[in-house]
Amino acid sequence: MNRVLAFAAVAAALAINVAAATTCTEYSPCARDGYCNSNAMFCMWGLCDEAQSYNSTSCWQPESCASQSITFDSSSDAISVSSYDGNPNDAPFVSIFEPNNAVVENGNLVLQMTYDSSEKKGFGSTVEGAHTIQYGTVTARIKTASIATGVVSAFIIRSDVIGDEIDFEWVGKNPSQVQTNFFYHDEPVYTNSASYDIGSDSSAGYHDYTIVWSADSVVWMVDGNTIRTLQRTSTYDSSSKVYKFPSARGRVGLSIWDGGNSGAEGTEEWAGYPTPWTP
User: Is 60 helix (H, G, I), strand (E, B) or coil?
Assistant: First the structure.
């Protein structure tokens, strides 16, 4: 939730407001939250509102999945959204916030969070894959930011179009614990979450975190060991007669954000309150 709100605030500052009953123009063809522009912040699939855009081809089409291994040995492996032109072959990851708090250095993608005095909370970073994915195996080697209460680190596969999500999350108040979760159409079912103790401080060293996603199941793994398996058959909801299983095409994402000072009581309790910013 905080990631979306932060993005919308930046988008509003850079775009032209459009009345709800109108559409965008050919010069600013892509719509996002009632504003129009022609850059990636508005035109990327998953962010662009096709119904309010100039025409049915204004929003960039979803980029097909591609098998790849990203080592972050080049600054072009993760670029700012303001520099992204829609070609996923030029940059495998895109930092979707401005100002950009993601940097590539010494063979690592480093996500940073800085204090925003006007909001009285941290302004973090979210980096998303340029390619989309619908089923497959994704592994990220991660040293988390669980160095202080309230700091949330995340590794996710998410569809911003539908609201399906599969994730790993870490909160600063429990640095040796990783949480696994899934969402169907953004429904907040808190019993979907499960925790696992990795046996060491997740911020002190690197671990391999893997999501194996198929049409029938999701498997979460840490350092090659399965810690949780979700079967699609177990997600059947008899009242709606629907399998509430994440199946929509999405993007791989990595993020850091301030849960401890989010202003949402439940989130602050979960992440740890407050995040201890110092002058």
Answer: coil
DSSP-derived 3-state class of residue 230? strand
Residues sharing a CB contact under 8 Å with residue 21, sequence separation 6 or more, in sequence order: none
Phi, psi of 190 (to 5 degrees): -70, -20
For residue 86, which of 47, 142, 116 has the smallest C-alpha distance? 47
Cis peptide before 274 (omega within 30 of 0): yes
Q: What is the pTM of this model?
A: 0.89
d(CA 137, CA 213): 6
**pLDDT tens digit string along 167-217?**
999 999 999 999 999 999 999 998 999 999 999 999 999 999 999 999 999
How far is Cα of residue 160 from the mean position of the Cα atoms in its chain? Answer: 9
C-beta separation of 151 from 145 below 8 A: yes
Question: Active-site residues: which are they?
Answer: 165, 169
The answer to whether the CB of 238 falls within 8 A of the CB of 118 is no
Q: Which of 159, 188, 180, 179 is nearest to 247 (CA)?
A: 159
